[in-house]
Amino acid sequence: MKTLRFQSFVLVSLSFILGFSEFIIVGIINDVAQQFSVSVAAVGLLVTLFAAVYAIATPLISLLIGKHRLYWSLVLLVTIFIAGNLLTALAGNYIVLAISRMLTAVVSGAIVSLAITFGSFLAPMEKRAGLIAWIFSGFSIAAVFGVPVGTWISSYTSWRNVFWLISLLGVVTLILAMKCLPAGLRQQQTRNFFSQLAIFGDRRIRLGVLLPMFNLAGIYVFYTYLQPLFAQALNFHSNTIAVLLFGYGFMSLLGNLYSGRMADENGLSKLTVVFLLQTILLVTLPVVLGSRWSAVPVIMFLGLTMYLVNSPTQLFFLEVAEKNFPQSMVLASSFNSIFANLGIAIGSAVGSLLYLHTGLVGIGPGGAFFAALALLVNLTLTRLRQSSAGYKKFSSKNKKV
Description:
The chain is mostly helical.
């Protein structure tokens, strides 16, 4: 029962239900707006709210986990996650809906960091990058299958049924996790609560965390309004939109899986090309919206680039923590989720402002601004890592003399 393959399946399942819960708002945004008689932009701000709470709460909860058993921390957090989705399903008004989304967001990031920490402890070194890539792929699988299925359920029954389904999947996954994950696992003892924050003294970390933030800030400026893009700008039917959302999610899944291979091959340096491509695609988005045949390929290629950053950056954070800050393993495991969601909050907020003032035309260039920032940060980090490696090599040679 306690085989690595089954444990990996459970960890990927955790990320799937987390992604399903987080991303589904994009697929049901019009239905929720109609239900509560609010604007599409108001529902879009739920994405911003979720991501902001996620980014703020995740490091705090990760720090509080400290020396406590990771198993029981995971059980508690997943239970709260299930309760948050049940409250969403039962929400009688927009305020309760917003509160339920915040409750879900509070624990989601810490659950991801715990899943990654379990994965890094359970997998042998040669399989670690692949397992981390698969854990992140749970989010892409949610985009591939969860969002289109959830959109279909919402269209033909009710959006509330989507959250009943997420709650049920959460219960099943929690039971499986309790059966297969080791109960005694802890991270290294810490001298005090704040000693875990020492990792932020490393300049590489301070630069590295900007990559997932700017990456998803750029993507979410347009991704938050992906359904209106397909429906309003390109005039696709609702059934076709479900297929297109599936296609977008499938492309993001391919990108996520390829990010694992990138992580094994000095992936951070290769991200320069990724961010350059993102910038170009987002700048051209308003131009190609006049034609379905040109707009759909551009949108799908953006989906491919969406999660290429995941495994290279996450493996980089874990390597720095293992070598220099072992007391910060859980915190380091959460960096990708924390700063990606901070980027989601920024991107979706900017997207909402652009949507209100410029319509769908302005969201592409708005996203391109953040992609260009990610490009500049990655160039700086690459030079820093190369100079650091050169210095260490030089020092090593001098010691041998």
